[in-house]
Amino acid sequence: MAISSFAETLVEQMNSLTLERVGQQAIKNAHKNQLSIEESNPIQYLKDSGLPDNDTALVIAAGPSLHRNDTAKMIKGSNFDGTIIVTESSMAWCLRNKIIPHVVVTVDPHPERIVRWFGDPKLNQQAIDEDDYFSRQDMDPSFRDNQLAFNNDLINLINEHGKEMRIAISSSASPAVVQRAQQSGMDTYWWNPFFDDYDAPESLTREVHRMNGLPCINAGGNVGTACWVIAHALLSKSRVGLLGMDFSYYGDTTYKETQYYTELLDLLGEDNLSKGFVHFQNPHTNTEFFTDPAYLWYRSAFLEMAEMASSNGVKTYNCTGGGILFGEGIETCSFEEFIKPQQ
User: How many beta carbons lie within 10 A of that of residue 36, not counting itself?
Assistant: First the structure.
């Protein structure tokens, strides 16, 4: 791994940069969501909501490996009997492949984008033209083309299966996401993310907790890690498998298709854009991947948390088949190897 001084500096500053970027929006959303929070369940009730009663969970995030490794076929052919916990960004992929998650997790406070993963009843062509995110993102290529028609189909799909799913919804979620989850019939379970040090002066985390009294969860800065934390820390799953947890991009991905392309372009300009990316060799697949400072920060946080969880008896198995999430506290294996103990 070779990292530029610019990328290294960004990684070191990512916590404060993220808080600056989304903190105030998250607080505004938490205030707007207060009535819904009072009328729903706090997340600790999720454990008693009728989930599979065993020690195993499968986390499905929306990394590009989902589409490259025929992952759906593996899951459907496995008779997996554990709890399936998915990011909101992988939910549509799951449902299209007739995989019904037990739990969907959402945390990002973005006012318009996140509701697209649920099907946005208010989407119009103007909104599509003004934000090219879904036209270029690599998490679910199905969202790129014929966006209005796809969105309408997704609304129907989520509405069809909403009552079969629970959603662990952060107080920071946009009211549009909250409304869609409720409209579709999902059972809602609320939590607060850690924004900063709870004990620090003027802590946003403490402010939100005092307002709504919800449990605070260290989500590692992203929804995929939040799924994993909920699996072992809340649901007491001691075996957690990961799929689609890439935290990186395949070598044939263009910079424009990466998650934080716009932000890096503004910082670096087109000519220096490569300085914002870091290349990794995955020793388990002998394949090169590249990543950006945000994903690198997520990886670092996850590895630190995984090592701590491992010391407490939690076994984390990365079955992604690619990406850059490997290190202490994580066993890299195939999905077939992960599910062997249940067979």
Answer: 18
The span from the CA of 214 to the CA of 208, in Å, is 8
**What's the half-sphere exposure (Cβ side, CA atoms, 13 Å) at 240?**
31
Q: For the range 276-284, what are the long-range contacts, defined as Cβ-Cβ under 8 Å and sequence gap of 24 or more?
A: 276/4, 276/6, 276/7, 276/10, 277/7, 278/1, 278/2, 278/3, 278/4, 278/7, 279/1, 279/2, 280/1, 280/248, 280/324, 281/1, 282/322, 282/323, 282/324, 282/326, 283/326, 284/326, 284/332
Q: Which residues contact 161 (CB under 8 A, 6 or more apart)?
A: 95, 100, 184
Do the Cβ atoms of 327 and 300 come closer than 8 Å?
A: no
Task: Return the CATH number of 5-338, one of 3.90.1480, 3.40.50, 1.10.20, 1.20.120.
Answer: 3.90.1480
Query: 142: which residues sit within 8 A by CB, 6+ positions away?
Result: 92, 93, 96, 150
User: Taking Cα atoms as reference points, which of 339, 36, 20 lies closest to residue 212?
Assistant: 36
* Residues whose CB is less than 8 angstroms from the CB of residue 318 and which lie 6 or more positions away in sequence, other chains included: 241, 242, 245, 325, 326, 330, 331, 332, 333
Structure confidence at residue 62 as a pLDDT band (50, 70, 90): very high
Cβ–Cβ < 8 Å for 220, 298? yes
Residue extents of the structural domains in the chain: 5-338
The structure tokens 């799953």 sit at: 237
pLDDT at 187 over 80: yes
For residues 109 and 170, what is the distance between their CA atoms, to the nearest angstrom? 9
0.90 exceeded by the pTM?
yes
Q: Judging by beta carbons within 10 Å of its beta carbon (0-12, 13-18, 19+), is residue 312 exposed, middle or buried?
A: exposed
Q: Count other Cβ atoms within 10 Å, centred on residue 51.
A: 18
23 — pLDDT class (breaks 50, 70, 90): confident
Question: Which residues does residue 170 pair with via DSSP β-bridges, in sequence order?
Answer: 191
**pLDDT greater than 90 at residue 155:** yes
Q: Are 116 and 143 contacting, i.e. CB atoms less than 8 angstroms apart? A: yes
Please report the pLDDT score of residue 9 as a whole number. Answer: 79
For the segment 86-106, what is each residue's pLDDT rounded down to a tens digit?
999 999 999 999 999 999 999
